[in-house]
Every structure is written in C-alpha cells, then in structure tokens.
Amino acid sequence: MTDQHDEPAADLGDTQPVGAVGSQTTERGPSWLPPTPPPPPLGSRPWGDSVAPATRPMPTDDDRPRVSGWFWPVVAAVALVIGVIGGVVGGVAYENLSDDDHPGTVSEGLSGVDTVSLPPLKDGGNVAAVAKEVLPSTVQISAEYDGQEGGATGSGFVLDKQGHIITNNHVVEDAAENDGPITVVDHKGNRYDATVVGRSPVYDLAVLYAPKASGLKPAALGASKQLRVGDGVVAIGSPLGLSSTVTAGIVSALNRPVTTGDSGDDSSYINAVQTDAAINPGNSGGPLVNLVGQVVGVNSAIATNGGGTFNGEAGNIGVGFAIPVEQVKVTADQILRTGESRYPVIGAKVQTGGVNEGNGAVIDSVMDGTPADEAGLQKDDRVIAVDGQRVTDGIGLIVAIRTHQPGEKVEFTVVRDGSERTIEITLGSETG
Predict the structure, then answer these.
(1) Angstrom distance (rounded) from CA 301 to CA 322
(2) Which helix (H) or strand (E) is 301 found in, with range?
(3) Number of Cα atoms under 13 Å in the Cβ half of residue 191
(4) What's the chain's Rg over C-alpha atoms?
(5) Which residues have a catalytic role annotated?
(6) I want to staple 303 with a disulfide (CB 3.0 to 4.6 A). Which of 207, 319, 362, 425 is the partner?
(7) End-to-end Cα spacing for the chain
(8) How far apart are CA 253 and CA 386, in angstroms?
(9) What is the CATH number of domain 342-431?
(10) Whole-Å CA distances, 256 to 42, 244, 286
(11) Does domain 138-213 have CATH number 3.40.50.150?
C-alpha cells in the first residue's frame, strides 16, 4: 500500500466521510442459528430401538365402516377452499415482491424469503468441491456505466429462492442513478433482467431483484465471526469479465478497517475480512466462501501498489477485502423491508490520514444537538477505544461505529487534557 497523507476530517454525522486508507480501490468498467436436524420419519423412534407393531387380522369388507354419501362432496369442497386460500396466500406473496413503488421489497425482510444456512459440505471439502456447490449460486452482473450498456461488470450471489441477488453498490450505482439496464448472468450463461431493490453506498452493498431468476440455487450464508486467520477461503466471480472464475487462498486478517472510493462522496468504510485469494476488477460483489461452502463475505476491494495491469486498471497483489456476511445480512434485511439502508452516526467529525496515527482518533468537531453533543463528547477528544476495542485512527473509529446499529448504546474511551474517561453515546441514524 502507499503511504498515507493528511486529509480532511471525516464526518461521523450527517454527510459522507472524507478520507481513504492507502490505495484501496473500487473496481469498475470492463474491466448467516445452526441448522436444525430434519424431523425423524413418520413412525420412527429417534432414540434408536425398533418396536415391532402388533399384528391383527385384516378386516373384511363387512368389517369396514361405511362412509356416508355426503362425505366425499364435503372433502372435495374443503379441498377446494384450501386450494383457493393457498392461491390467495401465494398471490399476496407475489404482490409483495411486485410492488410498483418498491419492486422486490418484502415486508418481513429476510425472514420473509427463503434463504439457506445449512453448509452444503458438512465436513469441509477441497476447493473443487466448494466450487461445484457454489458456482450455481454465483452470477455475473452487467450494468450500464457512463451511458454505456454493460460498461460496468461485476459479480454477485443468489440470496434466496425469490430471485434476490447480492452485489456491491459500486457495480450498479451508475445504472441505478440513471435508470440504466442491469443484467444478471448465471453460470450456464442464461441472462435475466434485474432491478435495484435498494443499495447502501456506506456499506457498498446492493440488493437486486430478478424475478425470472427465482429458480437459481441460493448460496448458503455462514458467519465470518467463526473464521480464524489462516483458514482456507475461496473467491468466486467474474474477474476481468471472465465468468465463473474460482480462486483460493487463506484469511490473512480479520476486522481490518479499510475504506474504498476515490473521494468522500463515494467512500465506503468496511470492517473487512482480508484474504490473499486472487481478487481482481470484476470480482466485486462475488462471494468469499469457507471450505464448507458457506458465504462469509462479499468481495469488495483490493489494495494496489499504484500500478495498472489490465486496460489501465490495477490488479491483484494478494491483498483483497470482503464485507463480512453479518453486515450483509443486516443491510439486506433493511433493504428488503423498506428499499433503503440505514447506518449509525454520532454527529461529529474525526481527523483521518496521518493525524495522531496509531494513538487514537482525534475529534475535529461536534455538531450541536447530536448524540455526541448530548453525551458530552468534545472537540480535540482523543478516542482510544469503542466498547473496549482499541481504536488507532480516524478510519478505525468510523468502522467501529458502523459495526453497530442505530439506537445501540456504545461506550467511548477518550483522553481529554491528559486524563482518560468513558462516554456513553446512543447512536443516531442516517439513510445510506
């Protein structure tokens, strides 16, 4: 990575933060409860011993009870009513996914769609086995960029059986803002038109809806919190436009605070999973998968040495970053419910880039009437920990805040006039 330089203060409140770490870049241009066991078969005894049923003579025709003549018409009528009710329920669910104002939204959020958490490979597999399981759930995404149809390419994965797709915001941002076309391509080359349900520039995530892709296999959602440094992972996507590409590596680091974007207007702050699995332009939005075939992150950014390798774009040097799947689930749930995402704020600005490096985050200003102001945070306070977790710089503070949810109470450890104290702040909320 390149060296850091002094940069403007980043906002922890109303506007997008300014500042970047090193030279993490976004990629554009052509460029998760444990599963419950299934119920035992009808009549089986789950504790193991078998019991032979008592035998008795088969009834003769004269022994069998007779059915009244009105019985079967009533059964038929009940069945018809059940069928009608089922059709109504199905119609309601479909309508919920076809709202003209918010296409693809689901009022129950993630609990209202069919996701998967059971690992497809129970004992862990090799890369080939992981690829076989996850490739059918991985898609390539082609979106309009700068007026050019298909000018932005990226990757994504199938979230549920209803046709929702997860990808990065920066893959579809331009198309969403300009009502441009977005196409999803599965591993067999089938193409599906897609629309944006909602997106989060702050977390660099987007949810797409492709109703005709509802037959695609959902990816299993895992947990990045179960990862350890050195665990094997697999990245799947379409780097450089090469669809269904599989690369493998290890988890290089966890809880790595990074930011992507070229300016404050498009910066995203990520508490990332770092990996050395090869990630290149076009991998954006694709799944990072553990060795039991569960998604543990969404590939979002790479670190570069500043050089270009392909059509002027920087390529992989073994340092890639993925958004933890826990954040993906929170953001996807919000978007499915309302069509938009929310993130926590405190209403203060923090210095980023070369300021007090490694010794905490210096508060540059506090806005009146904000959660930070009401809690007593002051300008020049140096935040050294959030909920007991060390903070080394401004970007680390932003990321630490954004791993929480609006409305939560967070304890800041600050140094003021040489003395250490704690301040409890109730997080506010913004859309983005």
Answers:
(1) 7
(2) strand 294-302
(3) 7
(4) 26
(5) 170, 204, 284
(6) 319
(7) 28
(8) 20
(9) 2.30.42.10
(10) 49, 27, 19
(11) no
Helix (H, G, I), strand (E, B) or coil at 155: strand
Contact of 383 with 360, CB cutoff 8 Å: yes
Q: Place domain 20-32+115-119+222-333 in its CATH homologous superfamily.
A: Trypsin-like serine proteases (2.40.10.10)
SS3 of 395-413: HHHHHHHHCCCCCCEEEEE
pTM for the full predicted model = 0.76
Q: Token digits for 241?
A: 């436009």
Query: Could you give the C-alpha distances from 63 to 56, 58, 67, 103, 265, in angstroms and in order?
Result: 13, 9, 13, 60, 82
Q: Are 169 and 268 in contact (CB under 8 A)?
A: yes
d(CA 20, CA 99): 38
Per DSSP, 63 falls in state T
What is the CA angle 285-287-291, rounded to 5? 165
Dist CA 136 CA 124 (whole Å): 18
Polymer length of the chain: 432
